Amino acid sequence: MRTSKIALTMACAAMTFTTAACGGDDSPSPTATVAPPTTSGCGLDAQRTFVRSVVNEWYLFPNLVDTGVNASNFNDAQDYLDALVRPAREDNRDRFFSYLTSIEAENAFFNGGSSAGFGFRLIYDTVNRRVFIAETFDNTPALAANIERGTEIIAIGTSSTNQVTVNSLMASGGPQAVVDALGPSDPGVTRVLDIVDADGNDREVSISKTEYDLDPVPRYGAQIINDGGKQVGYLRLTNFINPAIDELADAFADFRAAGVTELVIDLRYNGGGGINVNEFFGDMLGRDLGGQVFETVAFRPSKSERNETYRFQVRPQSIAPTKIAFITSSGSASASEAIINGMVPYLGNNIALIGENTFGKPVGQSAFDLSSDCDTRLRLVTLQLENANGQGDYYNGLADFVPNTCRARDDIFRNFGDPQEEMLATALDFLAGRTCTPIAGGPATTQRIGVDLLQPELQERTPAQHDTPGLF
């Protein structure tokens, strides 16, 4: 149960709260309008006044705001916001978690997974100047073109005659040049790609961006693995968006029926999503924890009346796991970290982080809409999450806070759910009691030199790209 009537939504770069007037605890909507006083209109002056007003009243780190910034020096409201919160960013507290976005596009994504693109997630290697498919989503143009995990993009163009190699793009403009070559996230944008499949087959494909809905538990996402006679539940979750609730319920109903008590939960690249989904996920793991604290959410002292605690609720599909291996990467953030942090107090030495250290985002944002007439939403860091032990300072990732860690490589040439894929194989080793090499502490971003998820600049990201790093 909750201690206050607030529904929260958390993402890699987004968290919202909904007041009781907008639906309260059970509201299916992850967003709500919380509009402070502003000047009229939707233009630059109104946006800058709006940004400053919200920051002054709600920002989680009021002592880390540059109060000397002059709004008139900025011709873009996002640039003005960046300047205001610069001290918090320099202190590693707000790593571009506060930003402006579209109300309409964000609502469509959180409520249904709506996105526009090719339907794949990209990873790049700056040392060798290469780009690979890390994941292909269901019912997308990429999957229809048989573009799967492990495929390399060699060249990009609008036709066969004007393709530019990824090598030359990265040599001249870095990863952003590849982003630019792939074009905007608009339906109908077409690119001709020269690709090499994981099996070495070189081919050319013409692919167009379309509207599609991301599937949070994809085609390979829930299965039971027979590991030496032991039934292990494997779950791959790509996003904490509302459609995940029903899919999680179905997966855990199967796990419960099969008597599964050991789990591998694959959250690599998962940038977060709804905290309502995160709480439901916690409930799925809390069959023996009813009424105990899952997490506490705290605002700045002047807004402490909004603080709340969520307690495990036992549901028909809930199981009582005895051991969990969480697969993570540097792209695992926010709600992905919150579910792990929330389970640490209850599993003791029977929980592990597998793969890489997580991103490090123990804070969340609230949604503030400029007005009902303007498609402008401010996502501002306003709250921090803690587990039942009061732990919530994992700004450098969770590796130093989870009892066991096992380092493993993301083997993009094997699909998710393949027991021979290195991260999953290492997770199964942990569950079986075999030893491993621990993940080094410190920021995850320092551990993957030259390798990362390909992402547009902050101002260019769609709501789906904020929460699904590497999505195109």
TrEMBL record:
Superkingdom in the source lineage: Bacteria
A molecular-function term among this protein's GO annotations: endopeptidase activity
SUPFAM superfamilies for the chain: ClpP/crotonase
InterPro entries: ClpP/crotonase-like_dom_sf, PDZ_sf, Pept_S41_N, Tail-specific_protease
Gene3D superfamilies hit by this protein: 2-enoyl-CoA Hydratase, Chain A, domain 1, 2.30.42.10, 3.30.750.170
A biological-process GO annotation: proteolysis
Name of this chain's protein: Peptidase S41
Species for this entry: Aurantiacibacter gangjinensis
